[in-house]
Design brief:
Mean pLDDT: 86
Order of helices and strands: HHEEHEEHEEEEEEHEEE
Low-confidence stretches: 1-5
Shape: extended
Radius of gyration: 32 Å
CATH class of the largest domain: Mainly Beta
Strand order of the largest sheet: 4-13-12-8-10
Structural class: alpha+beta
Distance between the termini: 94 Å
Number of strands: 13
Largest sheet: 5 strands, mixed
Number of helices: 5
CATH topology of the largest domain: Immunoglobulin-like
CATH superfamily of the largest domain: Na, k-atpase alpha subunit
Strand content: 15-25%
CATH architecture of the largest domain: Sandwich
């Protein structure tokens, strides 16, 4: 059995009233230890804050500091499903309602009444033209105007006349866009040698051509005619560059509408769409880099 003397040893270690020691150390020792850690962690905090401040001085408010490894823009489409599949029955409104709803919601930002403000928007022409230079990103010009893009350019895929976007007739529409990259200037193909033969007739100045075709050879001849609507059937250069959300808050991307007018019914068709440009390439690991694939199946019953 422990003695009272032994029982009080740990209490004396915690606080010795005779010597004034706390945990075996005098007040002076604890002051020095506390001072050391205060100074030590204060210096670490100062270095951290200083490093962050130095980094912030190197960052631009208007563009990413490092863009040397920015991938080419993605090519995306609406409606877009999780598995990139569009399947519906043209006689059953409920089967294609999610697709037409997605198209209406997406195109609502292109409504004419939303582009009337002369301080925010300007007309940039209905034919492909050169890049629209609105100054440097770092200049003090403030917010830049955006080019108008009328939904009427998308023809029967605009949703203005046909609220079903062709789905009711078994001729579905897709809306295609190039994803935004700050200060990116897509360059048209330098020569016909760099693109497939079937795309060469689409090459013209000041536009990035878009072309869709069957992905599998067994689907050749089953896709039928694909109609392209927009400016020049591709992405015109006057809508570039994009200056970012801060300087270009009202920016509208140019769109291309695809309408599949004669698909083979009751058949799953795999279609690939690509844009062609001198500074646009593709990555098989990224199915949306400069291209996309989609499966479409239409049942006419």
């Amino acid at each position: 059995m422990a003695s009272k003397k032994d029982d009080g040893g740990w209490k004396r270690f915690l606080w010795n009233s005779e010597t004034g020691e706390l945990l075996g150390r005098t007040g002076g020792s604890w002051f020095k230890i506390t001072l050391f850690y205060v100074v030590f962690y204060g210096l670490l905090a100062g270095i951290f804050v200083g490093t962050i401040q130095a980094l912030l001085f190197t960052l631009s408010e208007y563009k990413p500091t490092w863009q040397d490894r920015v991938a080419p823009p993605g090519l995306s489409h609406t409606p877009r499903t999780e598995k990139a599949e569009v399947s519906f029955r043209s006689k059953d409104f409920e089967t294609y309602l999610p697709y037409t709803k997605a198209l209406k919601e997406f195109l609502s930002q292109y409504d004419e009444e939303k582009q009337r403000d002369q301080m925010k928007f300007e007309d940039c022409g209905l034919e492909p033209d050169k890049y629209k230079n609105r100054g440097d990103l770092e200049s003090d010009m403030g917010q830049r105007k955006a080019c108008r893009f009328s939904r009427s350019l998308l023809g029967p895929c605009s949703g203005l006349d046909d609220r079903d976007f062709g789905f009711k007739e078994g001729k579905p529409c897709l809306i295609v866009k190039l994803n935004r990259i700050v200060n990116f200037r897509p360059r048209p193909p330098m020569s016909n040698d760099t693109i497939p033969e079937e795309v060469q007739p689409k090459v013209q100045p000041n536009v990035i051509p878009l072309h869709c075709t069957h992905k599998k050879e067994e689907d050749a001849g089953k896709i039928g005619e694909i109609k392209y609507f927009g400016i020049g059937g591709g992405f015109p250069l006057q809508y570039y560059p994009y200056y970012g959300k801060r300087l270009h808050p009202h920016y509208l991307q140019p769109l291309v509408a695809l309408q599949f007018t004669n698909l083979t019914m009751k058949t799953e068709l795999r279609i690939e769409c690509k844009v062609y440009g001198d500074n646009i390439d593709y990555n098989e690991k990224d199915r949306y880099q400069g291209r996309f694939e989609i499966k479409i199946q239409v049942d006419d019953s």
